UniProtKB/TrEMBL annotation:
The keyword ATP-binding applies. It comes from Papaver somniferum (Opium poppy). GO terms for molecular function: ATP binding; ATP hydrolysis activity; RNA binding; RNA helicase activity. The keyword DNA repair does not apply. It holds the Pfam family Helicase_C. InterPro entries: AAA_22, DEAD-box_helicase_OB_fold, DNA/RNA_helicase_DEAH_CS, HA2_WH, Helicase-assoc_dom, Helicase_ATP-bd, Helicase_C-like, P-loop_NTPase. This is RNA helicase. It catalyses: ATP + H2O = ADP + phosphate + H(+). It comes from the Eukaryota.
Length: 682
DNA sequence: GAGCACTGC
């Protein structure tokens, strides 16, 4: 393995003595970078980490922000020889942006060109050189995809799963699979980087069962017992303040807290966590309308994903002298964005969270208390530049009693269809017996299997069907959308379904402008089709191409240019995947009926009928409404299918299309022809 | 009459 010591022979101290000569074997970086590296808290654990990785199959590293674990540990491993002999050190991240920035940073520290010894892979972008790349950063989703080609991930010697405490869908699947791989590849080392609160459960997960431990008590390999190592962070202390009494109106409390900070505290920016766009806009308005002396000198900026790129970038502009920046944000600032200069955090204690109800098969978004882990994460945002303060708009009792230690893993609040397909494509058919880091509810598994069966993705034995099931597994989209693409191919409109699949995979192609709602609606009418939103999207895409993909044209028509660029990119990827599956692009031209039949073949479970002025889902008579953003809003055709349902105060169908009821029986005869009989064949 | 956040060869 390593060139420096073997388990049981040399002690870590000896390695310590040797390491001076091996740092940066591949380059001669500047002195200052090396000095900076040495100042990171993780640096003094270098020997210890290398020793643990050498001797343990899995090492859990608890590292707080600023410990340097993400950038340094892969370098330590590289210096210690884990990338010798063409092997690669992998480090996964939940987000593309972190993959790119961390890879760039590490390449800089090593003094190499990004894409050579240090590379990265994210969707649409592979900056690695086989045989040259030693350290590879990638999203956990990409690593999962790589497993479809190489189930044992043989080219990697060490896989570091970073930010595992976030418990994203793909992180959890990855952890389950990595544990399985280690049974076949005892030489593979895992490093799981996690926040304190999750370390114990991670360790328990990677601890082998008693039976297996006795059987596999091989003296040669590393011990199966996971190691845990804590590395302190570099953040400054944050003083926490709680309310003495619960707030009756948290929005007004937030506003008065901001004004009090501005009034009484030394300079420093303020970051405020609220739940959503509505509350944020309201708070911004309250502050900007407050024309008293108290609010003068405040620069109030909203931050949420629905904002245009330009508006989001305002956040990063330097604060003018004599001004205090107040950023009022959703959860986006909790993990995805780092804001420098923040000294004060105001935390509402709530966020919007997605939950999935497997009984109704509906995902909804509800305002719920955040976890203690999230509250700490939010508070930590105040201590990045100097000691800060966090004002929690709830009582200490609420923190102790109402907030759970950590959030519910995404796996336990999601529709499982995509995860199940991924596992089945890797040959794991016993879904109920899979070693999940957080087992989903049996109802959710059963519901997902039922939907996959109806789509024809799995058969009576719950195995992937051929070719449909295997093809669906190849396409990085929801099974419903993938099925739509395959049906589109059979019906002669692959071009159209791929375009619409790309558009549906992004949040919205329209610019979000609250003030000029009327103009947006008028712009929409220029493309609106009587058949509904899907056909409208085809019109928009065609017109966008005719404009020569012009940003000015987008601006004039209230279309989000950045979104359209993503659509073109996604469409390109889907076209390449389709090509590999033997699907050539073919257009149905003006025949929207075959296109709508193809959509129906993927979305028949989302069929609705107008009954006495309201829509009811065909499957379970759930009352639903057409979302006001749909071109079919107030048009109310008799039969529709929808792409997704959002639950706020009502169930709203987003992206709605008219259908003929006979198409449903064509698409899913076993579901719709004998509705009265028992279709739940699973 | 209305939109938490991520992600995918």
């Amino acid at each position: 393995m390593s060139r420096f010591w073997k388990p049981g022979t040399e002690r870590p101290q000896l390695v310590d003595d040797e390491e001076g000569g091996v740092i940066f074997v591949s380059s001669t970086p500047s002195h200052s970078i090396e000095k900076q590296r040495q100042r990171l808290p993780v640096y003094k654990y270098r020997t210890h980490i290398l020793y643990l990785v050498e001797n343990h199959a899995a090492t859990i590293i608890v590292g707080e922000t600023g410990s340097g674990k993400t950038t340094q540990i892969p370098q330590f491993l590289n210096e210690a020889g884990w990338a010798e002999g063409g092997r690669v050190i992998a480090c996964t991240q939940p987000r593309r942006l972190s993959v790119q920035s961390v890879a760039a940073r590490v390449a800089e520290e090593m003094g190499v060109t990004l894409g050579d010894e240090v590379g990265y892979t994210i969707r649409f972008e592979d900056l690695t050189k086989p045989g040259v790349t030693r350290i590879k950063f990638l999203t956990d989703g990409v690593l999962l995809r790589e497993m479809m080609e190489d189930p044992l991930l043989t080219k990697y010697s060490v896989i570091m799963v970073d930010e595992a405490h976030e418990r994203s869908l793909s992180t959890d699947i990855l952890l389950g699979l990595l544990k399985k791989i280690q049974c076949r590849r005892p030489e593979l080392r895992l490093i799981i980087s996690s926040a304190t609160i999750e370390a114990k459960s991670m360790s328990a997960f990677f601890r082998p069962s008693k039976r297996r431990e006795e059987k596999g008590a091989d003296k040669l390999g590393p011990t199966k017992e996971p190691a845990i190592l804590s590395v302190e962070g570099k953040g400054f202390t944050v003083q926490t303040h709680y309310l003495e009494e619960p707030a009756s109106d948290y929005l007004r409390t937030a506003v008065s807290t901001i004004l009090a900070i501005h009034d009484q505290e030394p300079p420093g920016d303020v970051l405020v966590f609220l739940t959503g766009q509505d509350d944020i806009d309201a708070a911004v308005q309250l502050l900007t309308e407050d024309n008293t002396r108290r609010s003068s000198g405040l620069l109030v900026l909203p931050l949420y994903s629905g904002l245009s790129r330009a508006d989001q970038e305002l956040i990063f502009s330097p604060t003018p002298r004599s001004k205090r920046k107040v950023i009022i944000s959703t959860n986006i600032a909790e993990t995805s964005l780092t804001l420098e200069g923040v000294v004060y955090v105001v935390d509402s204690g709530f966020s919007k969270q997605r939950f999935y109800n497997p009984i109704s098969d509906i995902e909804n978004l509800v305002v719920a208390p955040i976890s203690k882990a999230s509250a700490r994460q939010r508070a930590g945002r105040a201590g990045r530049v100097r000691p800060g303060k966090c004002y929690r708009l709830y009582t200490e009792e609420f923190f102790n009693k109402e907030m759970s230690a950590h959030g519910i893993p995404e796996m336990q609040r999601s529709n499982l269809a995509s995860s199940i397909i991924q596992l089945k494509a890797l040959g794991i058919d016993n879904i109920l017996g899979f070693d999940w880091p957080a087992p989903p509810a049996p109802e959710a598994m059963v519901r997902a299997l039922e939907i996959l069966y109806l789509l024809g993705v799995i058969d009576d034995d719950a195995k992937l069907t051929s070719p449909v099931g295997f093809q669906v597994a190849e396409i990085p989209l929801d099974a419903t959308v993938s099925k739509m693409i395959l049906s589109g191919h059979l019906l002669g409109c692959s071009e159209e379904v791929i375009t619409v699949a790309a558009i549906l995979s992004i949040q919205s192609i329209w610019v979000s402008v609250r003030g000029s709602q009327k103009e947006l609606d008028e712009a929409k009418l220029r493309f609106a089709a009587a058949e509904g939103d899907h056909v409208t999207y085809l019109n928009v895409y065609k017109a966008y191409l005719q404009s020569g993909k012009s940003p000015q044209w987008c601006h004039k028509n209230f279309i989000n240019y950045q979104a359209m660029k993503k659509v073109v990119e996604t469409r390109g990827q889907l076209t390449r995947i389709a090509h590999r599956l033997g699907i050539a692009l073919k257009s149905c031209e003006k025949d929207t009926e075959v296109f709508r039949k193809a959509v129906t073949a993927g979305f028949f479970t989302n069929a609705c009928r107008l009954e006495g002025g309201v829509y009811k889902t065909v499957r379970n008579s759930q009352e639903v409404h057409i979302h006001p953003s749909s071109v079919l809003f107030r048009v109310n055709p008799k039969w529709v299918v929808y792409h997704s349902l959002v639950l706020t105060d009502r169930h709203y169908m987003r992206n709605v299309m008219t259908i003929e009821p006979s198409w449903l029986t064509e698409a899913a005869p076993n579901l719709y022809q004998q509705k009265s009989s028992n279709f739940d064949a699973r």
